[in-house]
Amino acid sequence: MVRLLPAVTLVLAAYIPCTAQQVIYSEDFEGAAPTFTLNTPDMGSVVAGDNTWLVNNAYTGGQGTLECFGIPFSFSIPNTAAQPSGIASPNGNYMHITSMAAISSGVLNCNFAAADGLCTNAASHFARMSTDVSTAGASDATLSFWWICAGSPDNFGELYYSTDGGTSWTVIPPVNGAYRNQSAWVQQTVTLPAFAGQATLRFGFRFVNNEATAASDPAFGIDDVSITTTSQAATLVTGALPSSSYCPGSTLSVPYTATGTWDTDNIFTAELSDANGSFGAPTALGSITSNTSGNIAANIPAGTPTGTGYLVRVVGSDPAIVASNTQAITVVEAPYAGEDHHISYCSNEGPQVLLDEFPGASACGSWTSPDGNAMSGILDPATAPAGGYTYTTNCPGDCPQDEAVLVVGIVAAPNAGDSAGVTVCTNDPAFSLFSELGGTPDAGGTWALLGAPHSGNFTPGTDPGGCYLYTVAGISPCSNATAVVCVEVINCTGINEQADGWPGLRWIGQQGSTQLIEVGKDQPDHVGVFEPSGRAVAADLHAAGQKLALNLRGAASGVYVVRLTQGNRTAVLRVVQQR
Fold it and tell me: How confident is the model at residue 118 (pLDDT cuts 50, 70, 90)?
């Protein structure tokens, strides 16, 4: 569906005492450089294909051949109809579609490759005005052109217009359907409200060549293109601004002068261009309902980018007229402290740069802690207090400074303690895994072995050995804390089975890395320490009364065999080394 724009006309400021018609654009294709660009990719059209746009004065047809699937086919192209006297230069240059097969055969008049469904690809071909035409200051605008096209329901011409310099296009359907079924030249005029009041108006023509089994020459041909406007008496002028430099958020008064007749419900709006002076997407600064000259209370929006090429104009609504303004203004950067918000840190996180929490904030500022004292802006969650940290800009220039508050919460990090290892005998009593953890772990965590929950109480001979995971849940943003207690369970039965004949010999435990052995009154002549495999292990030996101290510094955790000899006596016992 084609939607016709409402009758809105935008007119640049000018004093026009009466209504008059004026031809503002004409193209008869007789000049050395026509103001149309041929074979553009607009609206999905192809730049090269089986057909092409040409500008020449060829009207004579002829014969030619077209190769299809390797087989040459002959074709015959009729003459293009002569132009009537109503055209400025009858039978002179014109813009038209010509098939590439015809060009290869030396035939250059208005024709096209009508597909037989096998040898011609369906494609569209676009030709457009090369420059913009302004209809600002006009109440209406009319496009006129002469055209010819026989074609078929699948091969026809189309007319398009653009109000943004050719960035986007809108199709204009003729009264009686597509441009076809016309073998003689005929003049077409089109008037739409959307044509008026446009600063960047263009027109374009497209030839649609769908696959077809029956089609007729001539193809789409165009000549004598012209645009006529009717001027409007009401005028509008934007006055001089009080300053050439503003900050985002600044207020200003925009003066304007309105002459002629304006409706009582007319609204004058002050608009701001982009930094390059383009009003493609203007920003409304303020408005007033009035039909007389006056001033508009306006405001430069906060967040407006800096730039030196901004323009301010006034636009009327009834009638719709735009008053231009060539006075450039500069928007300077206003200090920006950021937006107030809240964030939480875990007490075990490293130092935090608070300004990182205010993206886009001006770097020229200072911080104040919750107690009102100046601070560097680097916060250490391990020692800093929770509360509101205030950032205040102190930037150069006349713009007002800004302030923002970052409310910081400090969440205590969970502590699971230090991991530990323990070796126990199968016949030892039950004990708490929590008591084996090093450091100062938080109570209330959970225990698990290989992902399976565990009570945290270990019973030797019943519970399997392994590494038991202790987890203390963290509160966001803190992560969970974990530690492990690795338990080795050994069968300690018979540890003194060869100590008979050596009264008082027994292992009495470990202190640090030193194993303590009660030897009684008899001191051994020699002491050897061995791994269960039989390999000797170096140990520092120290006798203290009836005790023997074996320092196994650096030895791995496990069970070691100690052999003591005195004369002909030999005794063996085992000790458990824990690191």
Answer: low
Q: What is the mean pLDDT of residues 285-313?
A: 92
**Residue 133 has what DSSP assignment?**
B
pLDDT at residue 311, rounded to an integer: 94
Least Cα distance to 123 among 179, 181, 50, 67 occurs for: 50
Name the one residue in this structure whose structure tokens are 């009834």: 318
CA dihedral 366, 370, 372, 378 (to 10 degrees): -30
Residues 310 and 247: beta-carbon distance below 8 Å: no
pTM of the full structure: 0.42
Average pLDDT over residues 296-322: 91
Which token pair is 262? 């304006």
Rounded-to-integer distance, Cα 315 and Cα 300, Å: 17
Quick check: 156 and 179 in contact, CB under 8 A? yes
Please name the residues in contact with 3: beta carbons below 8 A apart, sequence gap of 6 or more: none
| 475 in a structural domain | yes
Exposed e or buried b for every residue in 401-424, given b needs 16+ CB within 10 A?
Answer: bbebbbebebbebbbbbebbebbb
Same domain (yes/no): 185, 149: yes
Average pLDDT over residues 292-314: 92
Q: How many Cβ atoms from other residues are within 10 Å of residue 8's Cβ? A: 13
Output the DSSP codes for 236-279: EEE---S-SEE-TT-EEEEEEEEES---TT-EEEEEE--TTS--
Closest CA to 80 of 52, 108, 105: 108
Find all residues with CB under 8 Å of 569, minimum gap 6, and list them: 501, 502
Q: What secondary structure, in 3-state letters, does 182-208 show? A: EEEEEEEEEECHHHCCCCCEEEEEEEE
Q: What's the confidence (pLDDT) of residue 214?
A: 77
Strands laid side by side in the 514-518 sheet: 506-511, 514-518, 547-551, 540-544
pLDDT bin (cut points 50, 70, 90) of residue 318 is confident
The pLDDT of 413-424, averaged and rounded, is 91
Of 411, 446, 466, the one marking the end of a domain is 411
In a shared domain, residues 517 and 482: no
* Number of domains comprising the chain: 5
pLDDT of residue 137: 62
Beta bridge partners of 283: 272
Q: How far apart are CA 351 and CA 378, in angstroms?
A: 6
